[in-house]
Amino acid sequence: MAGKPKLYYFNGRGKMESIRWLLATVGVEFEEVFLEKREQYEALLKERALLFQQVPMVEIDGMKLVQSKAILQYIARKHNLYGKDLKESVLIDMYVEGTTDLMELFMSHPFLLPEDKEKNIELIIEKAKKRYFPVYEKVLQDHGENFLVGNKLSSADVQLLEAILMVEEKSADILSEFPLLQAFKERISKIPTIKAFLQPGSKRKHQPDDTYVATVREVLRMY
Ligand SMILES: N[C@@H](CCC(=O)N[C@@H](CS)C(=O)NCC(=O)O)C(=O)O
């Protein structure tokens, strides 16, 4: 039997966090290798473990997978979080891409100059409020189900909850104008595996701090 998936990334959210969320949701335990030194990254490059010289990399089912989107789709397909047919899958892809676009704005935020950070976070919150959250509110309304697609949980639901919590960290009352999203958040948060992942001490990461940013810069030589 294959061992636990092994996740290679930094000790921060970045492009690995949605993968952690999805594995936790489907109840798969995983190990993490945190890159802290340039030498660890160089060792991975030397053994040709990183196809495009990038992390995230996940060792799973005898493969070394890179490209976060491909990894997420693999996990979603394997664990039936990817819809019942092509039409459901493409909707899931669209909704996942929307939340990814929103969360990527947050991912780049810690790397900005201090003087740009405040203005940038205001713009991100504005985008969440005006562009992204109204879409998901309407999808829930039109679809009339507990989930974004079909009548069961999909990776789109998991990622939407992740995005909601990320925005709420910066704007606690963001959902006040979105009652269906508020109910969605409460519902999805109660799924036992997700509830466990939301507890302190889980492998969920919180907002990257200066140490995280400094580590990424050092390991990837981003100066
Ligand atoms: N499309 C890739 C992008 C991965 C990516 O940009 N990884 C960054 C760290 S978050 C990296 O390894 N950068 C090193 C480089 O590009 O040289 C994915 O989604 O996995």
UniProtKB/TrEMBL annotation:
The keyword Chaperone does not apply. Residues 3-83 form the GST N-terminal domain. It comes from the Eukaryota. Coiled coil: none annotated. Keywords: Transferase. Its EC number is 2.5.1.18. Gene3D superfamilies: 1.20.1050.10, Glutaredoxin. Pfam families: GST_C_3, GST_N. One of its GO terms (molecular function) is glutathione transferase activity. The keyword DNA-binding does not apply. Residues 85-212 form the GST C-terminal domain. GO terms for biological process: glutathione metabolic process. Belongs to the GST superfamily. Alpha family. This is glutathione transferase. The lineage of its organism: Eukaryota, Metazoa, Chordata, Craniata, Vertebrata.
